[in-house]
């Protein structure tokens, strides 16, 4: 079992204790191991939070309005489809404008590498998400540049209302006259499809001094994206005698195999997701919906973007928003749902990402690429990349007009086109399927108590109701005109040209066969469109986050861009997808007005593997979750329930733990179960039973458990090849209900599970300490705040303590071998864990990008330094918890007793000038080395080897 860790910073607190001491004690003038002065500042900060160099200033000359440059891609194509009604009134107030900053060339390269590394399990940056502030420090603009832009805006008469946490945009309001003067364009009114809009008539301009910073200006027009919603009218809930069906929450769970996950306790508990909208909502509809289908009570958390006008309840938009919040919650039934809205969804999604409100975002709005502006496409990708870097997964509907997405956008455009922002590679595009029962029986004749009647998975075909509806009504899909094919979009069926294709996945989206029950405005309607499965996938992602925290070793919620993993799974575990090979998204355009192409059929057909109609297909969710976590995806997940006859024990008591395993489709599980507390086995037993259910039990003594709360995991080990193993948990408390538990341990530098004498060790759990405290002096104390730790019976000195994390040093006296007992005693309670000790286990202290500390970049041939822990025994030896004394000669400083010590950069062995423990440092070594001459500029892996053990890779940037 892999221990699960909370989201913590490496050596939080402990690093600052050591390094503050090092700052005063280390003799930097000693040439044999001197390091650049900036490392002191970097190290002191990085042990608690990631530190990056401040962005350089890019405004090089005075901001002068007389020297200007034009910003291309800001004239909205829809202005040419309407009637120009003249200048907008000069006093008209234009709100929530924003200047969006672009990345420098160096930042672009850095971000692309980071995003790739964050999805690469072999990279030390894997799933190391940034906060908005960290993103801004690395990819935003400098404070000085931001101040100059703000000053310029204020000088143009604007009211600056805020700036991003990520330092990548600034918002402001002002009169139309100020907009025209500042940006050198005219704002006109246009009548388009009976709606009045304003927009800039020509490309805007800005002072030339700002050109290196400014990527786009948002808010020069008030065209809004459209909801991707299909309404098949007011419908009853019940399955009708005519055989027409309407999908209830439990129907979705049965069709897409979500029920085994619910039974195992995975329902979004503790997770958050964001729904994006541009209308206010009626919360009473949501409450009625949840009551109607026996869902847990839940209050929506509406978030109106600050400084944004409340749009009120908008007809059409409120239907979309209600569908989204009701059905995301119908899937993730105990997740917290934040409904973020403004008068424009673009403003809402920008705010949700900048505030890092949740690790999952669902947006059911879009517009066809040819009828949107290029600056919007750039800005959507910039937002999505920031979201991914912060660990956010963004789902977007792929559109409802088949292969000709523009056919619903103010013209009779029959050209192949796709929907934006779904086409952004960093966004997961959700398309549509339709049930295809044929002669089979997939529904019960009557509904159950939750108004559901689906028996299980129903075969699917492409959603295309265009003929029946009399207008394009099919899942959007095809090739982007803005975005090239990402490296991960490969596999059977993926077109070979260099274009990003959508959708990525698809689920049922037909409003007529069969629509999703949605309670809006006091009535029950049947809805469809790709905006239906989009929030459902957001709910799925919230549950997946919860599942992976318990089963996949994830320390905190957040998956970032899931597309690379989706396409990889399609090749390695195709069983998790329902490959849809029937139907098409071909629509026939009849030109009646503003014809921009020849009328006729436009679209694509389905095929084996990927296709531009249904993407990779729909998902078998139980198998999908298991495959994502690395399990055998082809087998079925049984349901496991665990109980205890007593959940509160006193010393000397015992409890009977009973486990029941239910197999799918009446299959009786066979095999055994193992009861585990951490890595300790409490007992095992063989299942017996019949009729689809088997059970067994064991008796445990309180003495087998630790004082406080004990989370006991029961692992079912199937001997039936048709379905997989599974796990369940039960909590038993000994003594104090708020007790001491150890959930896992890791080295304090790279968080790997390898340990050596003298290493910095982080211990994770709950109730570990009463409060946070730091060691005040060296040698480190043996007790701190009522906390003591022993390893193999020897006291482990303590760097820092907190209720959720202890940082200690593994005693040098700890013998090499398996099963060293780690015991934590905290204020009268104890808990234990077992670790295996190796002779050496080197681990590099690195920042959140994986760059070694303190030297993250250097030229080939330069001197560089890094710090490690896990070197094992030292020669000459140093006492556990102690550091070399001030004034110790360099030749006499402790060095690794196990040799050789090597540093390899980019596959080339580096020359080492010093490898040892400097004065003032406990449990860590400093290594000075020469970056191998001849290394090409770029990011190169750095590996430290001591004896036969090697560290995880760091990433050194070799500069020109």
Textual characterization of the structure:
This protein has 960 residues and is of the alpha+beta class. The protein folds into 4 domains: 14-53 and 842-959, Immunoglobulin-like (Sandwich), CATH 2.60.40; 68-218, no CATH class; 226-616, Peptidase S8/S53 domain (Rossmann fold); 639-734, SoxY domain (Immunoglobulin-like), CATH 2.60.40.2470. It has 16 helices and 60 strands. The strands form 16 sheets. Strands 12, 13, 14, 15, 17, 19, 20 and 23 form an 8-stranded mixed sheet that branches. Strands 50, 54, 55, 58, 59 and 60 form a 6-stranded mixed sheet that branches. Strands 31-38-37-33-34 form a 5-stranded mixed sheet, with no helix packed on it. A hairpin with a 2-residue loop joins strand 58 and strand 59 (949-950). Helix 1 packs antiparallel against helix 2 (38-46), helix 9 (283-292) crosses helix 10 (317-331) and helix 10 runs parallel beside helix 14. The chain is globular and about 85 Å long. The two termini are 45 Å apart.
CATH structural class of the largest domain = Alpha Beta
Strand content bin: 25-35%
The whole-number mean of residue pLDDT values reads 86
Uncertain runs are 1-52, 234-241
Alpha carbon gyration radius: 30 Å
Percent helix, as a range, is 10-25%
Number of separate helices: 16
- As for the number of domains, it is 4
CATH superfamily of the largest domain: Peptidase S8/S53 domain
Major sheet, described briefly?
8 strands, mixed
**Assigned CATH architecture of the largest domain:** 3-Layer(aba) Sandwich
Main traits of this protein?
960 residues; alpha+beta; Immunoglobulin-like; Rossmann fold; eight-stranded mixed sheet; six-stranded mixed sheet; globular; disordered N terminus
